[in-house]
Amino acid sequence: MTLPAPPDRVLTAAEALARRLGWEIVAVVPAEGRLEATATTPWFGFKDDVVVRVTPAETGSRVDMRSKSRVGRSDLGVNAKRIRAFLAELSARLPT
Question: Which of 16, 34, 52, 57 has the most other CB atoms within 10 Å of its CB?
């Protein structure tokens, strides 16, 4: 996803959103534009690793995101849903 805001602003907004969602922040590395966190599923307490990377783009910032379950073969779409919801909320906070 691309956003018109500068990378430092996007990373700050991504960190604030991750904290609001209750994710455990593992690392925030502004020099690399990287946020790492652990999201815990509500029902069974499964841990999922999340990485958000923000890099400069011609018109602002490019945001890449990954969410991966630590255990199991199938997450039943939880990670994809998490990514879509996070990016939609981030985009709403930093409108294009």
Answer: 52
Residues shown for the chain: 96
Reported as a single tens digit per residue, the pLDDT across 3-49 is 999 999 999 999 999 999 999 999 999 999 999 999 998 777 889 99
Counting beta carbons within 10 angstroms of the beta carbon of residue 71, is it exposed (0 to 12), middle (13 to 18) or buried (19 or more)? exposed
The three-state secondary structure class of 53 is strand
Task: For the chain, count helices (H), then strands (E).
Answer: 2, 5
| pTM score | 0.91
Beta strands in the chain (DSSP E): 2-3, 24-29, 34-40, 47-57, 60-69
